[in-house]
Design brief:
Layout: E1 12-18, H1 21-30, E2 81-91, E3 100-115, E4 118-131, E5 134-146, E6 167-171, H2 175-184, H3 195-201, H4 211-225, E7 230-237, E8 247-254, E9 257-264, E10 269-277
């Protein structure tokens, strides 16, 4: 890994936005949620701040995969595949629909590792998000860069039967859901909407479901089963999910903590998550 990548430690990105109603209502429709539609003044559900503070990268600034060209806020890691691998959040107070807000991100570390699939580079980014009444969200993102695949990976075999849990849901994200979610989050990564590209260039068997989309679905399940407002949420992407195949969302609650998971239809553990609950004003729907 080039030594100058470490020069990006301390790189900062600041953005201001208004927590507008329309993207919130559009995401509610995209996820086909049964809960009442939100209105101005309502608290924003956990993780839904991902609809805001989006960098408006010009079309000329995108790479062949649809991601922004390397460099800028994030380091120019010379590996072709980039993935949002996981995150950890603390929710201090709710952002409210209609208020002005500010996000500050900072690159905390750049670490090289050697994995079973080859060279990996992990970039840790820390975020602080605040509204008109002060700091609202503390978060850390794990971004991983990987080598190109060596041969077609096998995602068809699972590890066994899907386990049972106290709460479960099934959802089948289709290409339309992925397209709408990409549009709402201004995500041009072609693995989510370009079938020839994702299969021929990246070797996946189909369109890849966004890791953050699955995390939002798990957070919604946690908000339904948890007791009190959500105070913390973390997730880790372990295996890809693909459009057109059912996903099973599972949740178990132990006092003030929920353990959650998303499984593929063929028995692969795809995403794990933990949600913590506590007293105070709710930041869940």
């Amino acid at each position: 890994m080039p030594e100058d990548l470490h020069d990006w430690v301390g790189s900062r990105e600041e953005s201001e936005d208004v927590i507008a109603l329309w993207p919130v209502q559009a995401l509610h429709a995209t996820l086909d949620l049964e809960s009442p539609r939100l209105a101005v003044g309502d608290p924003l559900p956990p993780l839904w701040h991902w609809l805001f503070f989006l960098p408006a990268v010009p079309h000329s600034g995108l790479g062949v995969d649809g991601h922004p060209e390397r460099g800028g806020f994030l380091p120019p890691v010379p590996l072709p595949r980039r993935m949002f691998a996981g995150a950890r959040y603390e929710f201090l107070r709710p952002l409210r629909i209609g208020e002005s807000a500010r996000s500050v991100g900072e690159v905390v570390s750049v670490t090289e590792k050697q994995g079973a699939s080859g060279q990996l580079v992990f970039v840790l980014v820390r975020y602080e998000v605040g509204g008109e009444d002060g700091l609202s969200i503390l978060g850390e993102h794990d971004i991983v860069y990987r080598e190109a695949p060596h041969g077609a990976p096998d995602y068809t075999r699972g590890t066994g039967p899907i386990p049972t849990a106290a709460w479960s849901r099934s959802i089948t994200p289709d290409p339309v859901m992925l397209f709408r979610y990409s549009a709402l989050t201004f995500n041009a990564h072609r693995i989510h909407y370009d079938h020839p590209y994702v299969t021929l260039a990246e070797g996946y068997p189909g369109l890849v479901v966004h890791g953050p989309l699955t995390a939002m679905l798990l957070a919604d399940l946690a908000g339904d089963i948890g007791k009190g407002p959500m105070k913390a949420f973390s997730f880790r992407v372990r295996s890809p999910l693909f459009a057109g195949s059912p996903i099973t969302l599972l949740g178990d609650l132990d006092e003030d903590q929920a353990e959650l998971a998303a499984w593929s239809h063929d028995g692969r553990l795809a995403v794990t998550a933990t949600a913590g609950f506590g007293p105070g004003e709710s930041v869940s729907r």
